[in-house]
Amino acid sequence: MHLETILPTIGYLGIFAIIFAESGLFIGFFLPGDSLLFTAGFLASQGIFNIEILAIICFIAAVVGDSVGYTFGHRVGRKLFNKKDSRFFHKENLLKAEKFYEEHGKKTIILARFLPVIRTFAPIVAGIGSMEYKTFLSFNIIGGFLWAVGLTVGGFLLGSLIPGVDKYLLPIILGIIVLSVLPQAVHLLKNRK
């Protein structure tokens, strides 16, 4: 997928929709959030996007997307556990999620932003686990800022400061993808169960 040709076509609205979907909708777990943000920032350094508008749009999409995911988990997800245990839904898992979010919820909401797939499901699980919304929102805003604005501005700065960086854009994007998937791969290898 060549983001540098797709992003100008879909524009600000398309970027907003992708970041929103990846942040809080089940269907968004496969979307390229990290590389999209970085590439959009890079394209802003080339004059294709306005960096201020882009950063604001990405930040709002990330925060609103996570809030929608939380609300879905809180309102709909908990009802799934009222039914008889099935292959995917066990009441025991709900209790584990509640305990986990009591102990680690704040840092999870921030760190999950930087982990593909997990960033989609963390707000939903926070809602299912009944994390207090005020607490969730505070850390959602912090995480959304660090991820959405940080990666976008990072791409912008790299594109602005390094002459001819566009020649290296594909390897840089591949590096971002590897770095974002690496923690999950290491975790899976350590805990094969």
Brief summary:
The chain has helices spanning 3-24, 33-45, 51-80, 91-111, 118-128, 133-161, 169-190.
Query: Structural class, from secondary structure content?
Result: mainly alpha
The largest sheet is: none
**How far apart, in Å, are the first and last alpha carbons?**
33 Å
Shape: elongated
Low confidence ranges:
none
What does this protein structure show overall?
This protein is mainly α. It has one domain (3-190). The chain is built from 7 helices and no strands. Helix 1 packs parallel to helix 5 (118-128), helix 3 crosses helix 5 (118-128) and helix 4 (91-111) runs parallel beside helix 6 (133-161). The chain is elongated and about 60 Å long. The two termini are 33 Å apart. The mean pLDDT is 81.
List keywords for this structure.
193 residues, mainly alpha, elongated
List the helices and strands and how they pair.
Layout (H helix, E strand, L loop, with lengths): L2 H22 L8 H13 L5 H30 L10 H21 L6 H11 L4 H29 L7 H22 L3
Helix pairs in contact: 1-2, 1-3, 1-5, 2-3, 2-6, 2-7, 3-5, 3-6, 4-5, 4-6
